[in-house]
């Protein structure tokens, strides 16, 4: 069984370089085009990918991205709160180039004030992966539609990363990743 993972399309807060964890944001025109292009690609590769189930973060930008994929694959995504983005707490909606923000971001065990740590996100990621592995044995492949930090956490389930390597990991909008479950 395979797990496909995609980050949502570009959003208004991505463009403004603001920390956007659990805050709602909307897809830009470019983000909608990215989502449509991804959906088209998934439709073309439908037989090869054999995606039978989609799980989606309940945040609007992920749901809106998933809507394109749902239409292309004729599937209905299942919302799962474990896929929501990291909670940046007091930094939500603020510039992400703030030195304090960057210091916490570089240290996976530090918690954002009134938010959560990367380690907590990884715990949620590992939980849903384990559940999916046990629930969907042998009946097609799975797609998660989620967020950048969540996708990085999912990545760590399948490949070990040093803190430095993790920081260099770039998850692009609508980038499709594939893992063997």
What labels would you give this structure?
5-stranded mixed β-sheet; 8 helices; alpha/beta; 181 residues; globular
Describe the structure.
With 181 residues, the chain is α/β, with parallel strands linked by helices. The chain contains eight helices and five strands, in the order E-H-H-H-E-H-E-H-H-E-H-H-E. Strands 3-2-4-1-5 form a five-stranded mixed sheet, sandwiched between helices. The longest helix has 18 residues, at 118-135. The chain is globular and about 45 Å long. The N and C termini lie close together (5 Å). The relative contact order is 0.24.
Could you outline the blueprint of secondary structure elements for this entry?
Layout: E1 2-7, H1 12-15, H2 29-44, H3 46-49, E2 51-56, H4 60-73, E3 78-79, H5 99-105, H6 118-135, E4 141-146, H7 148-158, H8 163-168, E5 176-180
Parallel strand pairs: 1-4, 2-3, 2-4
Antiparallel strand pairs: 1-5
Quick rundown:
This protein has helices spanning 12-15, 29-44, 46-49, 60-73, 99-105, 118-135, 148-158, 163-168; strands spanning 2-7, 51-56, 78-79, 141-146, 176-180.
């Amino acid at each position: 069984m395979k797990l496909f993972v995609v980050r949502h399309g570009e959003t208004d807060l991505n463009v403004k370089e603001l920390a956007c964890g659990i805050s709602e944001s909307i897809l830009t025109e470019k983000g909608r085009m990215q989502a449509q292009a991804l959906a088209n690609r998934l439709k073309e590769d439908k037989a090869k990918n054999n995606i039978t189930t989609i799980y989606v973060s309940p945040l609007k930008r992920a749901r809106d991205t998933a809507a394109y994929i749902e239409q292309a694959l004729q599937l209905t995504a299942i919302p799962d709160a474990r896929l929501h983005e990291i909670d940046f707490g007091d930094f939500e909606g603020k510039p992400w180039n703030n030195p304090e923000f960057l210091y916490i971001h570089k240290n996976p065990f530090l918690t954002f004030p009134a938010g959560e740590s990367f380690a907590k996100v990884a715990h949620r990621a590992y939980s849903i992966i384990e559940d999916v592995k046990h629930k969907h044995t042998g009946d097609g492949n799975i797609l998660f539609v989620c967020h950048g930090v969540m996708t990085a956490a999912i990545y760590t389930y399948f490949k070990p990363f040093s803190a430095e390597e993790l920081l260099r990991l770039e998850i692009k909008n609508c980038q499709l990743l594939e893992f063997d479950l």
